[in-house]
Amino acid sequence: MKDYINNSWEPILKANNLDSFEKLWEIKADWFEPPNKRRGGWSGVSRLELANPEGGSLVVFLKRQENHIYKPIRNLIKGAPTFRREMKNIQRFTHFGIPIPDPVFYGERSVNKQIRAILVTASIAPDYRSLEDWSAHWKKEGQPSHADKKLILQTVAESIKKIHKQFLKHGALVSKHIFIKYQPGQAPSVRFIDLEKTRYALLSRRAVFGDLKALSRSLPDIGSVDKSRFYKYYLGTDRLTRENAGLMLKISNALSKKAKKQGS
Questions:
Q1: The CATH number of 128-263 is which of 1.10.510.10, 3.40.50.720, 3.30.70.20, 3.30.1330.60?
Q2: Which of 136, 214, 239, 241 holds its CA 20 to 30 A away from the CA of 40?
Q3: pLDDT grade, residue 249 (50/70/90)?
Q4: Are the beta carbons of 128 and 118 closer than 8 angstroms?
Q5: Global confidence as pTM
C-alpha cells in the first residue's frame, strides 16, 4: 500500500521534521497506552504535540507496529499489517460520509524481514470526549437536559445506522470508541475511532446485533427509557412494537444470559 500524507497536514509534518516514514518511526515518544504484544509482534500508540507553523500547537496520535499482522484472503501466507486494514476502513468511512478523526499519515515497510506500519491521526480532544467519559461525567455531575439527551441519543443512533447501512460492522463498538462533541443547547456531533476490526458483513443483521450488543454491554447504567429511545432513533420509528422491538429484546436476553453464566 502506498504512503498516504494528508495534504493539509504535510506542511505541519515538514515543519516538525516528521514528513517521512523513517522519521516517524525513529522519533522517541512515550507510549500513550501500553503496547499490545500479540499476533507475533507488537503495536503501540504515542501522543505527539506538534508545532503549528501558523502558531500554537496541534496534537496527533502516532501508532506504530511491527509484525502485528492479519491474514487477508489475498495474502494468506505473508499477511499484512493490521494498520493497513484500519487505513482502508478510514478511507471507506470517509467515502461514505461516516464521521471519524482526520487521517494524517500512513505507511508500511519491510525492514530485515520485519513488517512495520505507521498510522497517524489527528486528535479530536478536547472538543470531543468519549461516550464512556460523558456517561461517567453525567452520572457524577447530573444528566443533560431532556431535550439535549434526546439529541445526543438521536445523533449517536443515526451515526451508527450509517455504518450498518453500508454493510459494515465496526467490530469494537463500545462507549470508549464513540466520541461526542457536546455543548448544552447545541446540536452534538459524533466521531468513531478504532476501526482496526471493522469489516464488511454480508449478513447485516449479524453485524447490527454484534455491534449493538457490544455497545449495550459497555453502557450498563443506561436506563430502559433511554435505551428504548435509542432503538427508536436507530430503527427510524416513533414507536416500538412487537415486530420492530425484536432486536432490543434479543440483545437484552443475550446480555442477561451472559451475566447469569458469569455469576454462576
A1: 1.10.510.10
A2: 214
A3: confident
A4: no
A5: 0.91
